[in-house]
Specification:
Elements lengths: L1 H21 L7 H17 L2 H7 E3 H10 L3 H11 L3 E8 L4 E7 L4 H14 L2 H7 L3 H16 L8 E9 L4 E5 L1 H7 L3 H5 L6
Parallel strand pairs: 1-5
Antiparallel strand pairs: 2-3, 3-4, 4-5
Helix pairs in contact: 2-3, 4-5, 5-8
């Protein structure tokens, strides 16, 4: 009986070690930075809002994530924006707490810019804000943007971005500035950032 308990306990410890290796933690190591980038970009591609809130700090994206709660239209938009995103790690600088990436996505600047311009001609910012919680309005309008985004082409050349890395309580956090937001979203976040203070 003691032998069986010892074997079971050893198996639990081994399983715990393997589970612990698969997720990034808050230690600033090259391996952990790579894992954190992988988790964050996988979350962007699938628009996993919970994981994004844990691993990504981005002012524009954070505001859009807040609209996504309870409104599937924003989740659909997020998936359309990031589904073609790819990246390659170029350099990790642990001393500076940065990671430099080469990112590629579709080019959304014109499509998103036209959408934002059209809305701002039709509505004042005060009129737009309540509409961002109106499911009927969101269904009608965001579906137009998603359709436009689906028809966009890939950017011809990758864009290099450098992200600051912060040690959080339980994991590392990647900080996206405006240039990084623009690069990963193919210009979409910058183009729509003026809508209702986003």
């Amino acid at each position: 009986m003691k032998k069986l308990l010892s074997i079971a306990f050893a198996l639990i410890l081994i399983a715990g070690l393997f589970c612990g290796c698969s997720k990034p933690d808050a230690s600033m190591t090259e391996s952990n930075v790579k894992k954190t980038v992988s988790v964050a970009f996988k979350a962007l591609k699938s628009y996993d809002t919970e994981t994004l809130e844990t691993y990504v700090k981005s002012s524009t994206l954070s505001k859009i994530l807040s609209f996504s709660k309870g409104h599937d239209q924003f989740v659909t938009l997020g998936k359309a924006i990031f589904s073609n995103l790819s990246y390659e790690i170029k350099e990790i600088d642990l001393d500076a707490s940065t990671v430099t990436l080469s990112v590629t996505n579709k080019e959304f600047t014109e499509a998103a810019g036209d959408f934002a311009d059209k809305l701002l001609k039709e509505y004042s910012l005060m009129e737009l804000l309540p509409k961002l919680s109106d499911d009927g309005w969101l269904n009608e309008n965001l579906s137009v943007l998603v359709k436009s985004i689906d028809g966009c082409s890939m950017r011809e050349t990758p864009v290099d971005i450098t992200l600051k890395i912060k040690e959080g309580a339980d994991n590392l956090v990647l900080r996206f500035d405006a240039d990084a937001e623009d690069a990963v979203s193919g210009g979409a976040l910058k183009a729509i950032s003026g809508i209702a203070g986003i």
